[in-house]
Design a protein that fits this description.
Nuclear Transport Factor 2, Chain: A, 15% helix
Amino acid sequence: MAEHDLPMLSRCWAPDYLVVTATNAHGVGREASVERLSQELRAKPDLLIVRHPTEVEVFTAWGMAAERGHWESGWSATEGRFGMSGRYFAKWQKYLDAGWLIQGELYVPLGLSAPGRWDRPLPSTIR
């Protein structure tokens, strides 16, 4: 994600890729997720997201794997530098024609560092 190379990143996603982001944005499908992330990068040009896997378990019989770990992100805004971190879970699927691809990801925020007072509501319609 450091290079912001979305075409390269999206090659890791299954065509029916699903994601729930830390701000409750939902992405359904590879193309929709690329567009959502493109918009995010336009708004936050220095956005950096890093995943730190802590465990991967493989169910060979069905070609599935579970990955979990923690993630962290950082970006600049007019108020200053922001950071967010939390836990993530990814479901991998082995495809005959494409190898291992991420079928779904779930990001749960557990921390936010922000300049000054941060009292903005969750940027989502889900409450």
